[in-house]
Amino acid sequence: MNDLIISASVLSADFLHLETDLRNVAAAGSDWLHLDIMDGHFVPNLSFGMPLIKAMGKLNLCPLDVHLMVSDPDMYLPACQEAGAKLVTAHVEACAHLHRFLGKCRQMGMQAGVAMNPSTSPEFLPYIAETVDFVLIMSVNPGFSGQRFIPSALDKIQRVRELMPSAVRIGVDGGVNEQWAPRCREAGADTLIAASAIFGSDDYSAAIARLRV
Question: What 3-state class would DSSP assign to 140?
Fold first, then answer.
């Protein structure tokens, strides 16, 4: 299995003191920063746009893991590239031409990821296995922070691990905390996206350490 990566989800950070919060979580040991872009169409919420992503990129604290919860993910790729994103993930449910989207990500120098909603079957994955670097399993319905982990995601993690080459990273996003983190790891996940489990803690270092156990 790949080494474990913890990606702190900025959606749960303190937006009134965002730079301070991001510096603190990076210093506490977060490997990546997970940035949820929501358009109010694909998901029923708005988060933040590309100007803020670019500003976070200029801080150069951690690699940026951009999660596009949007209806037209291709439109965002140039701005993600300009912001210096390491990884861009779009939802299979939103991509008319997923294979093309993943190829564009790689051509632009970014890693290519695909996300799946809780009700989406992973059986399409072998058809893009050669063009994807990261598979993100949503363990909540996307659009809001602070939701409870959906246990059936564990079976999906196992199935995705069976379907994909070992070099492809498998992430889990939604309700990941110290209770669910070890079970996700046992199922085959090597990337944990955590929001309130980190930013809702008084001690970011301790919170991240608990997720690594």
Answer: coil
